[in-house]
Amino acid sequence: MPQRRQPPIPADAVAPGIRFGRLVVATEADPYLWRGRFSRRRWACDCDCGGSAVVREDSLASGHTTSCGCWRDDVVRDRATRHGARKNDRRRPEYQAWQTMRHRSGDAPVCARWRAAGGRGFENFLADLGRRPTRNHRLVRIDPARPFAPANCRWMKNPPRAGVPRRLITVQGRRMTLREAAAQAGIAYATLCKRLERGWSARRAVTGRADIR
Questions:
Q1: Which residue from 6, 21, 48, 79 has the highest number of Cβ atoms inside 10 Å of its Cβ?
Q2: How far is CA 175 from CA 44, 71, 171, in A?
């Protein structure tokens, strides 16, 4: 919702009853002090939304401040509503999936169409994949070696859980959980999981040394 910044006006025109955007000057407030010295006059203002704000005179006169902060909130809310990211003030699951995908772009690239600025990236994502069919569906890549893109992504119901496919390994003839093996080897549990994900044998994952053939 665009709001044009009003042209600067003389500072001496700031007075009770004068309107600046959504703000109406009510009364003069304590001055703004910088290093203990007088710097700027400040005014207490009432906002059309029902809020209030104390604003420096130069910010009012220049048109820099025209609301108590509600205009910025309205812009954010309007953008979210426009591209369908929120419902009843809660993020939609499609938007959460899109955000998670973008944050994972260090591990897997995201196509330019889904990274477009100004909310267009999510709009394109939603247009390409549609709404999540059920709460049991997750966003998955068909080919994990390829980027996130319309031809390589879809909503899948109950997809296999990513990560270590096994929770028990055999170390020195003893069957144990991954956490037990990590504790016994003195390595981080996450490190052990990563090594197994990369295809390391149980012995190598625990000791960090290549297997001897």
A1: 21
A2: 71, 61, 6
Q: Of 131, 104, 102, whose CA–CA distance to 115 is shortest?
A: 102
pLDDT at 87 over 90: no
What's the rounded mean pLDDT across residues 118-138? 89
- 197/189 Cα distance (integer angstroms): 12
Look at residues 156, 208, 212 and name the one whose alpha carbon lies nearest to residue 185. Answer: 208
pLDDT digits (tens, 9 = 90+) for 48-78: 888 899 999 988 988 888 899 888 776 666 5
The CA dihedral of 60, 66, 69, 71, to the nearest 10 degrees, is -170
The residue among 34, 60, 32 whose CA lies nearest residue 47 is 60
C-alpha to C-alpha distance for 26 and 46, rounded to whole angstroms: 6
Mean pLDDT of all residues belonging to the chain: 80
Residue 77 tokens read as: 């809310």
pLDDT bucket at 86, cuts 50 / 70 / 90: low
199 DSSP 8-state letter:
T
Q: Which residue has the tokens 């910044």?
A: 5
| CA distance linking residue 73 with residue 94, whole number of Å | 22
pLDDT of residue 196: 83
Buried b (16+ CB within 10 A) or exposed e, 50-85: eeebebbbbbbbbeebbbbebbeeeeeeeebeebeb
Question: How far apart, in whole angstroms, are the C-alpha atoms of residue 66 and residue 144?
Answer: 49
